[in-house]
């Protein structure tokens, strides 16, 4: 019975492995990695430094080595590739599919990447050169050239022969794409169908419809298409409708995961792709710019409040409600923009701006009214200053309405301008919102007190 | 040439369709939906009310109708199902795979669901009863019973025959799972291999290793396994290692998408699964509880500041820096907890708490120092009160360190207790952080001024 070994990372194992690395203990390393899945080895290697990892990889079979290289995340790999010689890389990349090969080549300095390309096998070379023309975040940059292509006038038995001869170059496929004699995509036929159908049946009689994506479609949209139609792979066509590649679901899963992470980072105000276990300096650098935005906002607030120093000295209680006003404004703003971000990513039909704003205002009026009422009730009991209590509630109501509006409109504007709308929940907009809230509060106090 | 029609939702089309619905214009509806993919019809139906949608669905073929029902999102479908008669539902659910059937049955009131189950075809009935035992968010609740199972002592040609006979009941499969005579999972064999290999080869000689998940594994973990190994489907086994089902990648993509959305809602403080285009009342209800948490925090802040009324009256400038302190504390806290959430979801080996805190503190000290310095420099130029400027910088430094600690530790505690760590970036923790920041600031002022 063949089976992958249970493999779980724990402190003891990592320590033991580190020891083996320190002693360059080939036997231990080989024995402990035997029949371990390459994906598990990748996860393990994150725990060691580049030289150590490279030493381990050199002990393994070249195809396992190449597979692990493919699995590493892009940031880690970029650094890691520096310690490879061009000739080594050429050998390893020759073992990969065209899309993975292109990804790695994209991470090399131009000079090295050209040398590697020059050394690739003929077919892979031309495929890779074709793929490198595309941006990483469009369908062309996600696709692989390897696919099974059959003609519409073939019979099932001809298809099976073709599958047999093409399959050598194509890992993982579930679908053969049907094209006409000009390579224009007509549909698809599942392997399941090839197995089930009578061998004399013609492809054109059993082909299924398929939705294709065009080379320049954005990766987010490709993900939406695959999710919507539950595809495990989607064909890519050029503007003439000619089949040029296919995108498999595992690549799209990566796109979805990365985008969720990007959105989270945008919301949290982290400016580069940083991970918790990166170095102190890298972490600081990624976080500082956004903190400075907040600090700048805070200093502007301080200047602004300086204009009201007289009033504040007279009635210190005015300042008591600053946290209340700002927290509520912030929360309302983030809620509003999150809902817009969610609706933008759901790819449903987008209602008109007027309808959207009408509903947002209704929700804001209702929430603002209820909150203002609750605060008034509490304040009347707890504070002696009824006039100020009334003013706080009026300002709170205004801030809720204001923040809803800003929170709704900002992600829409960002989206229209081609930016990630999730930025609207990040520190820049939050800071603006804080300032607006303060301005609304002090204006209200100034006018009504 | 067969092809799905280009189908894009736009205002004109929706209006025209609404008109046709008002007049119950069968011809228009049928003509405009002909050869449209069911997934596109689902998207369209979100624009109309339940009765209208039901009327459209009743015009379509039952299998298309069932497919669309399957595609609807769970919230929408729950309401929508109320207008179906039990007999109708039974007929439609009979056309679905076991996992989709179980999902829909889970959304029905118990009484109806039992009636529907009683009316299902024998095989589906037993499959569905088996599936309904599992929670929705574990592997057992995600899996389908439909799969292709072959024995290890069979030859390739026997497999192909078995695939042919089983394939009738199984939509979409790419892999046959290999079991022994006790149905224990041994490995898998891809359809690709069945097509390529010589027909007399024995399954046991060509089977590939496969990682399986157990029925009680959490959906997040299932998603990690499939991502890690790039599987398009993963076999599910019970504690005895017996093959009981399989989970396909499309279901896991849904899990990943939903979880990203849940995280976002947790961060934004939205308490139920609400969408921007839900009713005003539902939107208000989903948002109000979290806003009240913030408001309560604000009122406590106000009370707290009351203790310092004397100091505030004497030096109004103390209040000027409240927004600065609070905004920075909030931003640092959210950054810290986002990084932890990200590292928890990346499923890497988790470093020890001590190492993690050591690095977090280093980053906090560095960031806190740089920010305090920047603020001091600005304040010395802009404010006359040097003493207060110094105090503000000291407090800012303390708040950055504090907020980093709270932001790091909270998601870890939530995770340990089985809650979603993303809640740590939500309003509850933010509010606590705000209060702590204020406390730190005023204590510093009180002690040093």
What's the quick description here?
2 copies of one chain form a homodimer. Chain A is mainly alpha-helical and 449 residues long. Chain A contains 23 helices and 6 strands.
CATH fourth-tier homologous superfamily of the largest domain in chain A: SLC41 divalent cation transporters, integral membrane domain
Count of individual helical segments of chain A = 23
Going by CATH, the architecture of the largest domain in chain A would be Orthogonal Bundle
How large, in whole angstroms, is the Cα Rg of chain A?
A: 30 Å
Summed up, the domain count of chain A is 3
Cα distance spanning the termini of chain A: 83 Å
Shape of chain A: globular
Poorly predicted ranges of chain A: 1-5
Strand order of the biggest β-sheet of chain A: 1-2-3
Number of strands of chain A: 6
Query: Mind telling me the CATH class of the largest domain in chain A?
Result: Mainly Alpha
Binned, the helix content of chain A reads 55-70%
Overall average residue pLDDT of chain A: 87
Query: H/E series of chain A, N to C?
Result: HHHHHHHHHHHEHEEHHEHEEHHHHHHHH
**What structural class do you assign from the helix and strand content of chain A?**
mainly alpha
């Amino acid at each position: 019975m063949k089976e992958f070994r249970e493999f779980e990372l724990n402190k003891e194992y990592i320590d033991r492995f580190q020891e083996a690395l320190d002693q360059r203990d080939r036997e231990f390393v080989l024995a402990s990695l035997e029949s371990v899945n390459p994906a598990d080895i990748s996860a393990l290697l994150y725990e060691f430094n580049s030289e150590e990892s490279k030493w381990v990889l050199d002990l393994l079979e070249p195809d396992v080595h190449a597979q692990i290289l493919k699995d590493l995340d892009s940031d880690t790999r970029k650094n890691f590739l520096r310690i490879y010689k061009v000739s080594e890389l050429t050998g390893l990349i020759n073992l990969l599919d065209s899309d993975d090969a292109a990804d790695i080549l994209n991470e090399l300095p131009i000079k090295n990447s050209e040398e590697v390309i020059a050394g690739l096998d003929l077919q892979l070379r031309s495929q890779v050169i074709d793929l490198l023309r595309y941006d990483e975040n469009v369908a062309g940059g996600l696709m692989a050239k390897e696919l099974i292509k059959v003609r519409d006038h073939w019979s099932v038995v001809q298809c099976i022969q073709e599958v047999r001869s093409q399959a050598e170059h194509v890992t993982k496929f579930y679908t053969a794409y049907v094209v006409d004699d000009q390579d224009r995509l007509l549909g698809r036929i599942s392997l399941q169908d090839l197995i089930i159908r009578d061998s004399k049946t013609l492809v054109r009689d059993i082909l299924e419809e398929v939705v294709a994506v065009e080379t320049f479609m954005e990766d987010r949209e490709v993900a939406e298409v695959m999710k919507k139609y539950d595809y495990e792979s989607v064909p890519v066509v050029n503007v003439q409708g000619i089949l040029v590649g296919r995108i498999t679901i595992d690549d799209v899963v990566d796109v979805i995961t990365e985008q969720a992470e990007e959105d989270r980072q945008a919301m949290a105000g982290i400016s580069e792709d940083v991970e918790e276990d990166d170095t102190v300096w890298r972490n600081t650098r990624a976080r500082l710019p956004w903190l400075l935005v907040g600090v700048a906002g805070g200093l502007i607030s301080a200047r602004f409040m300086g204009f009201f120093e007289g009033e504040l000295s007279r009635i210190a209680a005015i300042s008591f409600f600053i946290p209340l006003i700002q927290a509520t404004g912030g929360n309302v703003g983030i809620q509003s923009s999150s809902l817009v971000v969610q609706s933008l990513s759901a790819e449903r039909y987008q209602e008109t701006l007027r309808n959207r704003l009408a509903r947002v205002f209704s929700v804001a009026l209702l929430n603002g009214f209820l909150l203002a009422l609750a605060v008034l009730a509490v304040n009347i009991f707890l504070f002696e200053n009824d006039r100020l209590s009334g003013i706080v509630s009026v300002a709170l109501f205004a801030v809720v309405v204001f923040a809803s509006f800003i929170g709704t409109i900002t992600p829409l504007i960002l989206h229209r301008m081609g930016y990630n709308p999730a930025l609207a929940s990040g520190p820049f907009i939050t800071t603006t919102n804080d300032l607006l809230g303060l301005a609304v509060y002090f204006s209200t106090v100034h006018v009504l007190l």
